[in-house]
## 1
Amino acid sequence: MYDFLFVCVHNAGRSQMAKALLNQFASERGLKIRAESAGTEPAECVHPVVADAMREVGLDVSTERPKLLTDELAENSRKVITMGCAVDADACPTLIFKNIEDWALPDPKGKGIDEVREIRDLISRRAEALVATL
């Protein structure tokens, strides 16, 4: 059972960052919170620029492997947070699941390090605020 499941299309950027950041913030506070991530169309690997941006904040996501969103994974999560359905609703079949929240973030794919840092920092603020409510 996961407390949070972060979902984006390729599971190679936003959802990987959110998972790593939320797990780190929960760990720092001694919380037994577990987050996972998945995608509707998983990529081969995490975007290299995303891995670089995360390394800058002390988290290594370079060895994470994008995984497919399954019904079982969603059903075994207390809350599903999509990363951009408000931005690209056509790529978000996860809307059929209950207890969904969308963070409406831009996709870092194809963006430079400065833009990816901005996306990372947005995710970081949201993940930290989420952990603070637990």
Note: The chain has four helices and four strands.
## 2
Amino acid sequence: MTLLSYQVLKTVADQGSFRKAADILGLTPSAISHTIASLENELGFSVLNRSKLGVTLTNYGEHLLPYVNAVLNSDESLQQAIAEFNGLKQGKVKVGCFSSVCTNWLPNVMHSFGKEYPGITIEVFQGTYDDVVYWIKNGVVDLGFLSVSSAGDIPIEPLYKDPLLCVVPKGSRNSTQEFMGIDEMRGHQFVTQRESTDADIQNFLKENSLDIQSNYHVVDDLSTIAMVAHGFGICIMPEMVMNDIPYQVDSYRVLPEAYRIIGIAVMNPEFMAPAVRTMYNHVLAAYQQEEYQKKS
């Protein structure tokens, strides 16, 4: 088995098509098909299901893919180390993030990083907390942004304390208080998200015995707030999410006060590839500079 065969398998799995993989890798579809056939012959089992609808991994292929990712990541690390020895900063960094980091933080980080290290490419994967955890553990991404509570056993460096807010329809609350307490929340219908979408909100609800009943179970932040804006209930949302929201709603700090802690996570902090470590340190420095400016 060769690095090319691993790259072909990963690309076919990502694209779900021999032809799309061929276009990306600069090969012919027949070369892709031949490489996969040779790989399966050498392994002794099938790694792909072929159908008119496309190509998917078999159960064996699903279990093999994290090891393929590890081999490809190791080769990338080797190439980056060689480039670093030659005084060059180059390579690729794959970053996993959830929605509000993707819209609020990542563009500025990518711009500043790109100016300083034009030879390093950043590839972004956006999903839920559970997606980012899976991607980090299985080598799909090199590092990721998570909340501390969702990171589990993945080492994480805290960056930002993001307050939780209670979001209500515009003008629906007859109170001048800046906070909204648990008892007041109990009298409302909630719009909730799946647990994998925001573990910190689910933890807040459980810790405060808010055993809510909801008819609305959505996935993304914007849909949740849209439902609230149209009067279908209230929701708990991190403050960062509320930046540039197009819907008319009111938001209040929750009481007791609660936060999610956002951080940058990497599976093996002591063994990052040079480009990954450069990106990791750049994010830490950018956050520290931002905090310094807030305090000045």
Note: The domain at 1-65 is CATH 1.10.10.10 (Arc Repressor Mutant, subunit A).
## 3
Amino acid sequence: MATAPRIAVLGAGRMGGALVQGWVRAGLVPPDHLLIYDRSPNPDILALADQGAVLNPDPSEARPADLFLLAIKPQTWRPGAETIAQHLPKGAMVISVMAGITLPTLAEVFPHQDVVRVMPSTPASIGQGVNLVVTPGAFSADQHRQLQALLAPLGHTEVMTDEDELNRATALSGCGPAYVFLLAECMIKAGIEQGLSPELARTLTLKTISGSAALMEQAHETPETLKTNVMSKGGMTAQAVETLSQAGGLPDLMREGVAKAIQRGRELAAPSA
């Protein structure tokens, strides 16, 4: 993008905040180009306000915004979005990161703007996120380039074919960091219960997870093969993996968790959700 865009943001919590921080960190958007609407801003957002971001301005101030980031909870999005929509310029891009709220529903509130759905993941704040994108059919090549320029500093981008695929993929990548954090939490607690200090258990867990992820990215083998390579017959790893893989264990729980996340996304898309 030739010039830094002016961005209005509704909701700067975990996901909205991660995107804003990623843009600022990458130098794509200076803080004084941000209009942030958030009733309970976290310390990172307050720090951006100290650097020039405008916090909770009058909605009319959104009039010159090039882009509107809609990152509020999907259960409560419409009143605030409708208020700001009245002041957005025609043709401004609206990026929704809300689960379940479909493009046709968004278009009801933003009939004169160009709406796109993006489901990022929180590692976007450090440029290591995954961005899932679905756009309306009328989205132009120039708009796609503009969107790509916005998402590139945040991590890897995948374009989805439709909104149901977006929902299914979100259950894997958008929700996925929480799965990894839960795994880390469980590993740390297990290490402490076996007598390791909290500091050592945390260090060993985080280094093991980050190193294993790096190996999976660089190796040519599948995760299944890499798992087998770690195990020796009758050894410590084999015993632990066998226990985790038994009926009702990690594989079954992961399948059930992902399926329930997808179902919840579909429920959020329903008018009564």
Note: The chain is about 50% helix and 15% strand.
## 4
Amino acid sequence: MQDLETNEEYLPSLQEDKSFNFYKRLIDILGGIVGIIIFSPIMIITAICIKLDSKGPVFADTPMRVGKNGKHFKMYKFRSMVVNAHKILQKDQKLLEEYKKNSYKIIDDPRITNVGKLIRKVSIDEMPQFFNVLKGDMSIVGIRPYYPFELEEQQQKYPQSKKFVKIVLQSKPGITGVWQVSGRSNINFDKRVEMDAGYVQKKSILYDLQLILRTIPVVLLGKGAI
């Protein structure tokens, strides 16, 4: 993560807005509780379907994500792939090349299970992240939850993105955000991180509420999901 800590020459740190932070955290706590209550039946049914569909745990064993100020955290997701999917990727050179070439996504990924295809399409696999929100690792609305290696490798590929990464890391990742309502997996890293930086600088509760409303049709239509 060295590249993420050496961008001081680009832009000054954003000023802390205590009022914004208070109301955003309040919305996160209330939203997290309401989300867990409302979606708990779906999450229970999903967990049962995952166990019946394939061998392995209910939750995905994915690499750590980068949170606010570069702190790593474990993001909760329902397992939508076969067991040891990350190890399989590392051993399959052709799959790995496509993964990196397409900004860390694979079209028609053979590791995805039958149940996984459905829950990814309508973002059910993301629902456990409400627990991350309550813990304080994430927000309801925020930047994309990036992988450490993704940030490092993509900054080398897109050097101009370093100034945006510096801004992005001053905010918590979100269950939804600008990237999700604007194309999700169809947006490459350089544009995605620039959009995230713009969101962080905006600091608007009203804008957060607008993004939440815009997320609903995107999820229902499965736009940009892989």
Note: Residues 40-221 form one domain.
